[in-house]
Each structure stands twice: as structure tokens, then as C-alpha cells.
Amino acid sequence: MCPRPKVLKRNGFFLPLFALALATLAGCGPKYTYPADTIAQSIEKICKDENQLDVKARVVGKTVGAVLYLDKLIDEKGQIPKEVHEKMGQVMQAVTRVALSTDAPVDFCMVSIRERLQANELVITRSLDDTKRANADAIGIEESINRTLFGQGRYSPEEGASGNFVLNEVKIEKFLADQIVQRVRFNFSKDSKDDLASSFALVDGAFETVEGKRVFRFSVIGLKSSDDPHSTILNVFKVVNDVLSGYKFLEFDSIEIQDYLNRLKLTIDKSTLLAYQQKKLNDKQILERFVTESQSIQEAFKLFGFNLPQE
Length: 311
Fold this sequence. Notes:
Blueprint: H1 21-24, H2 39-51, E1 55-60, E2 63-70, H3 82-99, E3 108-115, E4 120-127, H4 128-135, H5 141-146, E5 149-154, H6 157-162, H7 172-190, H8 196-199, E6 201-210, E7 213-222, H9 231-246, E8 254-259, E9 264-269, H10 270-277, H11 283-290, E10 291-293, H12 297-303
Parallel strand pairs: 2-3, 7-8
Antiparallel strand pairs: 1-2, 3-4, 4-5, 6-7, 8-9, 9-10
């Protein structure tokens, strides 16, 4: 018997977002129910037969994705209606259900919900291994949601008009970098509900290969006040450590974190992070040994696309 979905409520843009049905409803049935060459059509058929939704599905590399077009994503109050959340959940349930019961190597599931007229888009991306962990209660509901990427943006009108669905393969390095950025942004907002100014933060992150070196780079400008100028960079570092250790990801050479407001930069290599995880280094030692002065706030805003007036 399939497990009943667990329910979680949280204030925010994307949640309650089908109460994590994507992690708890999918994957029931015998192994390899859906052969590799039937993945896309199986997802489309499930969505049509069970929920009367017309989706387009694709498989690229180890990523399975589907897109659903709707007339409207945002209501008159600027909120995403409950029915849109439900449809996104139904599509993700179908994608995950097929991904968990195929002989094809699948690492990631992605669902895009697009607005036909305004070209707005909501995207949810999830690691299939995280879904397996959630099904086995190896990770809790809160952590399961934290491991799910929620995005919004715009898609190319030409792509929508042609009916095409261009699916980009999700790579683990980018997935982890984006997840770290999402967690840092949420951390800024969740503790400052009554002070919008202090919750404002510009956060960016990427995984890059430069001269043969594989580097995670993160930049933050946070207006959250603190008596300790090192608090922001330390908090970001802890998120980075939690995510990389949680996924046991070691395929990198170094990590760079820039706190532009306090003009601080933290740079550590993989061996230093492992020493921290093994309790051979503490927070104070990390800050004392590996934090240096960074660029000015004016240069930082330029990187985020802003030009500040000169004094």
C-alpha cells in the first residue's frame, strides 16, 4: 500500500506546495514498470488519464522533466492559487513515480508550470535520491523540502508558441550551489519577519571550473544587522558545510564566500572543510585563519547589476 502524504505548512511563496506529495506519493508498484524508452509517454499518459492534464515530458541525460501550460499562474492578490499548487504536485508525482520505476539512470526530476500569455514560469527540481530518502524516512519533511529547489522566472515566448520544451540536464554541482543559495536566502527571511529591511539580502552562487580547479563561489550582501561583522559569512559557511556534508559531495577543490557589506572573504580548500567536519577546526579558527578583506560595496553591487551613485 502506498504511504499517505505527510502534511507540512509554512509561510512562503511556494508552500504549502502540495505538502511534499512529490516525496511521499510516488514510486509505488513493481520495479521497472516503465522501460527507459517509454518514460516520456508514460508521464504524459499518467497526467492525462489520472488528472486530465496535458503535459510534455522529456528525458535529457539523467534528468526527467515535464512542462504544463496554464492560462494563469497568479491571482488578483499576487498569490499562486491553490489549484496551481495542486497541478504542480500532480505533475511532479507522475514524473517521480515513473523515475522511481524505470531501468533508466535518473538522478533528477523537474517540473515547469508556465503561464501562456505572460510567459511566467514556476520550476521545481528535486533529486531522486532525496525522494528515496524521504520515502524511507531517512530525512525529515523539513529537510526534504529544504532539498527541493523552487524557482520562478520567465520562459522564451518563442519556445511556448512552438510547443517545444527544452529541458536542460541538471548537474549535481549546480543543484547544490542553487540549493545553498536558496537556503541562505530563506535563513535571512525567516528570522526577520517583522523587519523587512533587515531581511533583505542579495545572494548569488555558482560552481565553476577555473584553470582545472573546481570551485564553489558564493556572494552575499545582507542588510541584517549584527554586532559581529563575521556573523554573515560564518552563517553562509555553515549552510555550505551542511549541504555538502549532507550529500557527501567531495568533487571540488575549494570554496569562496564573499560578504560584500562587511568586506570579508572566506576561502578554504576541501581538506580544510573536511577538518572542520571532523571537529579538528572550530568556527573561531576558520574565521581567524581563512578570512581576508574583500572588495568594496560599490564593486559588489556592480556584480549584482546595480550601479551606486558616487559620493
